Amino acid sequence: MLGRSIPEFLCDIAERRPEKIAIVSDERSATFSQLYEEALATAECLRGIGVETGDRVGICMEKSLDQVSVILGVLCANAVVVPILPRLKQPNIRHIIENSGMVALVTDSERMGEVVEFGDLARLIIGHGQLEQDWPNLPYMRRFIRPQMFFNRISNDNAAIIYSSGSTGRPKGILISHRNLADGADIVAHYLGTNEDDRIACVLSFNFDYGLNQIWQTLRKGATLYLHNLALPNDLFALLGVEQITALPVMPVIITKMFDKRLKLATGQRDFSSLRYVCSTGGRLSDDMLRDLKTTFPDAKIYSMFGLTEAFRSTYLDPSKIDSHPTSIGKAIPDNQVFVMDENGDECPPNVVGELVHRGATVTKGYWHDPESTAKVFRSHPRFPGETLVFSGDKVRKDEEGYLYFLARGDEMIKTRGFRVSPTEVEVEVVRHPEIVDAVAFAVPNIAIGEDVACAYTTVTRQPISEQILKQYLKANLPSHMVPAYLIHFDSFPITGNAGKLDRKSIKEAAFERLRVQAAVHA
Amino acid sequence: METAMSELQILSQYIRDETGYEGELAADLDLLEKHILDSFNIVQWAMFIQAEFQIELEAEELVRDNLSSLSRVMALIDSKRAAAAKPN
User: Fold this and answer.
1) Do A234 and B60 touch (CB under 8 A)?
2) Is A88 exposed, middle or buried (0-12, 13-18, 19+ CB in 10 A)?
3) ipTM given for this complex
């Protein structure tokens, strides 16, 4: 075999470094050979339960070593992983189960009560936790099985379906091949320099591609992955210091939690000199976040990255450019190209806004059982006959040096007084205010001028800032057409279930509701 | 006659009010493991404890193991008070 799949990565590293610690969690640890045997035994159990080649298997579990074994076990069983975030609402879980047509759903014994209603749709299996009479228990069954490798997929075959909630409608399943996963591991490990001396702290969840990629890189390079459920930042700082962690992949919401100014932080009491890098994706890094990271981890490189699940990862910013280009999403990742295209599919000149179009190894196979949506996003381009590119819908621009800047999700550009305003550019300025933590800018219809700019924000103190004072501050820092006409204070922002990003849709809806109430009061 | 709530009652009342949790709330129940507290509301929990019991938690005390159950919080409060009472 050529080794272009995760089961082959696992088999290879288990042969080369059997005794090396692969995964460390609070509960237990596993070497690569133990992890391999657990995965094979899990695969054998699943086959015994009736999971066949190509079947979809849902995984609705908290982060644990058992969850990693189940993910790898499903892949080794020639089946397809369908992650389901445990905190998802019941109708969304039902949608994913029905839409993917999964044959089995693996969950924690503790969570069984929440999914038991789906027992008529999929075979329920316990992947972690205590024995229960009614359901098969994988950790228990594994003990009685002699593991053997029967993985026989080619790299074009389906490996995972990851559901992402778009800005409208039901979550869509993004279909990912074994080759996509293998390429994603190689490409990211290449630009991050991942190696077998790396100790990666995994605070991310394994319910979306970014978190899963940490497992793939660990297997590919023989690194060690430390599973950590972030609750209080000082526990994470202790892990980083005590275990001499070298790699910390995060998201903006995690950085905000790490440096919560309401708490005393143990940042000064720990030695973080072994930390090679912090990487982040899933939203922009504010000045405050960058300052906190640089102050706390002066020896670490900071990688700002960007992507959408349809093509896993599109860009990263060379860490040496983080000071000179702090708001840039960087350039295309290796073995991929990113274009800024106009409506005719022609490349935009520098600094002209266009659509981000992604070409290369990480382009996924399309939306599961949704040819209509697939045809909109996964398209050909006359310059690249026979190829499928991802037309992201995201609005970006490229500067003269080729650095890319994210401006808005497709439908979020604000049209006001004849200008097209990027919500991101408003947010960057609003968040520069020392008291403001986060901001979400959006359009409010106004017949007279097209749309007004509105901005919801959260503060360090959780108290609103006087609207008059804040507007004055923004007028001094923004062109007048970008100054929000409406400023709406939130105690905190909701986070999307599936990826831990700001839930812009809910924030906008709540802000609209507040504006409606205000308007009614003033009328 | 109304009696003041015990400290344990104050803590459990806060958890119920803030999280809407209605199940059994044993003193040693792990609130994080049961997902009653998460990374969002645990900071509020820490703030509440400091304000309500007029103690100031240091960085090394603001860790999961001190705040994960009602009994652990009670022990933390007791140790803070004992330390404050003892002249050094």
Assistant:
1) yes
2) buried
3) 0.92
